[in-house]
Amino acid sequence: MEIEKLIKENKGTIIDVRSYTEFMGGNVVDSINIALNEIPERLEEIKKLASPLILCCASGNRSGQAQQFLTQNGIECYNGGSWLEVNYLKSK
Fold it and tell me: Which of 18, 47, 64, 71 maximizes the CB count within 10 A of its CB?
């Protein structure tokens, strides 16, 4: 399924992997904040979230790293890139 369709249809969970401070400066409605460096220690919590996971950050770099790690751990996830792009798609 295309990532744009997942976002527009509110499928899965949007995880913003930026720092808490960045997240509080602006974020996608209904997204949750799990900073990139917290992902390994919060893996069990992440596995319980509604899938697929849509990952976002400032540019797509950190969400790409998160996607690689989560995919290696058997979690269905997609790199949504910039949170601004995900927010735009969600608002359409």
Answer: 18
pTM for this entry: 0.95
Looking at residue 24, the DSSP 8-state letter turns out to be: H
CB 58 within 8 A of CB 82: yes
| pLDDT in the model for residue 42 | 98
- CB within 8 Å of 31: residues ≥ 6 apart: 14, 15, 16, 56, 83, 86
CB-count burial class (<10 Å; 0-12, 13-18, 19+) for 22: middle
53-57/77-82 β-pairing:
parallel
pLDDT at 92: 83
- Alpha-helical segments (H) within 49-92: 61-72, 83-91
H or E element: which one contains 53?
strand 53-57
